[in-house]
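Case study: ATP synthase complex subunit 8.
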Amino acid sequence: MPQLNPNPWFFIMLLSWMALTLLIQPKLLSFTPTNFPSNKTLMTAKTLPWIWPWT
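Here is what the predicted structure looks like once written out:
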């Protein structure tokens, strides 16, 4: 069963993870976000209980 042989696939997986961590990730993390998070307070809606006519 050739799918149990990890020789070519393990090397491909290691190369892809190394490329992701060493090349792609620093480039993505260097971008500055355009919309910074704001410090707004959350407004909670005041809800009234529903009165069921049959109870």
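For the exam, be able to explain this: The radius of gyration is 27 Å.
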